Amino acid sequence: MKFQLAALVLANIELAVARQGVNYQVKRKSWELSDDYDFLVVGGGTAGLTVADRLTEAFPGKNTLVVEYGDIEYAPGQFDPPKIIWGEAGGYSSRWELSSTPSPELNNNTAFVIAGKSVGGSSATNGMVFDRGSKYDYDAWQQLQDTTPNQTKSHRWDWEGLYPWFKKSVTFTPSSPEIASQYNYTWESSTYGNTTPIHASFPPFQWGDHFAVRNAWEEAGIELNNECANGNKEGLCWVPISQHPVTARRSHAGLGHYADVVNKGRENYHLVVRHQVTRLVYPSGDPTAGPPLVEIRSVDSGETANITVKAEVVLSAGVFGSTAVLQRSGIGSASFLKNLGIPVVVDLPGVGANLQDHSGPVVTWQYATPPNFTAPMPQDMLNPPFAAAAAAAFNSTPATGPYTLAMSDSFIFISLPNMTTPASLSTLLSKIHSLATANSTTALYLPPVYSSDPTLLAGYRAQLLALADLYASPHAPSLESAFATGTTLPAALLHPLSRGTVRLNGTHPLQPPVLDYRSASNPIDVDLHLVHLRYVRRAMQAKTMRGLGVVGVQPGVGVQSDEEMVKYIRGKTTQSFMHPCCTTAMMPREWGGVVSAELKVHGAAGLRIVDAGVFPILPSAHLSATVYAVAEKAASIIIEDWSGR
């Protein structure tokens, strides 16, 4: 046991340490690479490393190269030492910190987004929440696919088609009896797998007033849901986090799908770091004659090189990175590319359209008299000796204390019919249906590119009909509110109607693209925010919270009318809960889609996309678990295509 524990610590403390044992696979110069590769994966993040692991395992005689912009390094998470406040800005080399253009409907405020920039990608830096969407979300994905008769299950993206890959993508370990009893954790082990080196478990810590909020929601009539990973997500849930059950440290793709793999001698698995894919080039000029040549550039020296790929290129650079690579390669909206002087290779208006993210205002309060909780409170982190002790506990083995909690593992998920009256629900659904069917108004709240392209409008109308079905269901959550402590509750809108864009920076094309979130540009989103905000505010009226002397801070007790609440929403909405998706959507080309159900780029041979960009609409979940499952399913499709060749 001691030997096993020591090995786990070595793998989890820092990837830079693990690198010493796998240097023969880690490349830093283009001249270290082979002349050609069978598969080339663009991006060493959550999806890219999953796909590379599975391909090198299935095809030991074929070489796979992963090209990663960042490096192998310890990537501090949203709540790792030395931070003392969750989500503090850091300016770390291991992440992109991006801001959108102003959103006029939200007082010209901007969205702030963090994306991973190291081996492991966003799985190495995110809030560690490891939940799945409702089964109705993924059934809606299938509703937006090419409904080919007799489509095989392996190519279906509904809950039934994706659930096996959710199970394969994670190893869940139940809490010890002592921890489970202390916090009343519940789970259903049958909904998870146990053979993959990506781990999920429950943290060994909760803040002192955590159960005050849980009690308040129970008093408000929310039903306890023993397991929210089985597709049925309505209610009050415990959600596991991306945490190793022995070390209580983060489990991410850089460890489970790279370091753990190559340390066992996977010599056909190559990784080049500190390199950027600048373009994908079809040498003949014919995108139907693939796969493309891959042009890479050293981030440090600026030197470029071309890599020949014999089988496929898999684009997994993330929602923003994959979009930028495509647009630099001449794959995207023809009018946009021509304006930048980029030759059009494939006219795909959906590239960079359809941007979605979870957003919403927050409810905050304070206690009139600080309660005397026996366990620590977040404000204790402002005490230097306590914060130092918390950091030391995190760096012990196994880790303990506040830092093991990451973001949270306690959530409510509530559907729209369970938050509003039948009359109000009918009005909201009528608005959505009207927007979907009235050709003259569908484009009214959309980015300009939609007005000039009938395929994008057709796809958006199909999305609206799918969203209307979700909002009508009493089993499909519309609201998420995560809580770790009784001072803040977000009111996250899970299925926005607004759509934004991601566009190549014409002045600096190798830099991150321009993000136009256009949050709340569709007024129905404001209607939904209002319903959600009023519902979340109910927690403060619960008996438990009143007994603790809760006093509302934001919005204040004087904010009561719809007009005052909407004013608060427009001024205080968080535009990104760090779940961007959908900019290279998996939908038919005639609906503005970018990839097929096999994740092949429409009109571009030898090229697939596997990351959160292929989601057609946002699921009611934080994204990492879904990205892992999509990558596992995508890898199986690729393996099926190439087996026997």
From TrEMBL:
**Ranges where the Glucose-methanol-choline oxidoreductase N-terminal domain occurs:** 37-358
* Active-site residues (renumbered): H579, H622
Ranges of residues in domain Glucose-methanol-choline oxidoreductase C-terminal: 496-631
The record's section on InterPro entries has: FAD/NAD-bd_sf, GMC_OxRdtase, GMC_OxRdtase_N, GMC_OxRtase_C
Entry annotated with the keyword Signal: yes
**Keywords from the named record:** FAD, Flavoprotein, Signal
Q: Which Gene3D superfamilies match?
A: FAD/NAD(P)-binding domain, Glucose Oxidase, domain 3
A Pfam family of the record is GMC_oxred_N
Gene Ontology BP terms: secondary metabolite biosynthetic process
What cofactors does the UniProt entry give for this protein?
FAD
Annotated signal sequence is 1-18
Annotated GO MF terms: flavin adenine dinucleotide binding; oxidoreductase activity, acting on CH-OH group of donors
**Residues binding FAD, per UniProt:** N126, G127, M128, V129, V277
Q: Which family does it belong to?
A: Belongs to the GMC oxidoreductase family.
Q: What is this protein called?
A: GMC oxidoreductase-like protein
Q: Which organism is it from?
A: Cercophora newfieldiana
